[in-house]
What does this fold into?
Amino acid sequence: MKRAVLASGVAAIAICFAVCAWAMEFSANVVSTQGGNTNTSKMFIKDKKVRMEGQGQQGYSIMRGDKDVVWIVTPAQKSYMEMKAEPTAKPKVDEKVQGEVSRKLVGSETIDGHPTQKYEITYNTGGKTEKMYQWMATDIKFPVKMAALDGSWTMEYRNIKMGGQADSLFEVPSGYAKVTMPGMPGAQKNRGAPKGTK
It folds into this structure.
């Protein structure tokens, strides 16, 4: 069960993160769909720090871009796991899409109460050229929704609250033990062991 929760947390990070410029501070609900499945998370951002809380999960993830690490925190066990953050692991909160080749304005809509301009974007990824829609909110200068042209995936930010976020949201709580990621050397031996123990 614990492994499933942790895997889901890592998956949420992988789905919701991509290269962008970031110097924002806000919280939002993130609703993503792919392959008929819907994932809902709560996200907090402060500069290069991100916290993701998946709906129905026992733990949460903290990505520290300033330290190049990701922490998977499990409050029930008072423990956390640490792994290196990928250089491309940054939230999709910038107007420009990674690998963007061109964009074309195709309309305007209101998304979650925000007036937006809808763009069709052509971008390169993995050696292929793809297209997507982006709804850029004109009031908060923020991409509140993105979707594949064929609707195979969507990602939408809802209930966006711009403004200061507490530093404590992006720190592992005091007294939590660091444990080894499953599948890594020493994982069974060190699981659940407090810092400094064997």
Summary: Confidence is low (pLDDT under 50) at residues 1-22, 185-198. The two ends are 24 Å apart (CA to CA). The CA atoms of residues 3 and 183 lie 10 Å apart.
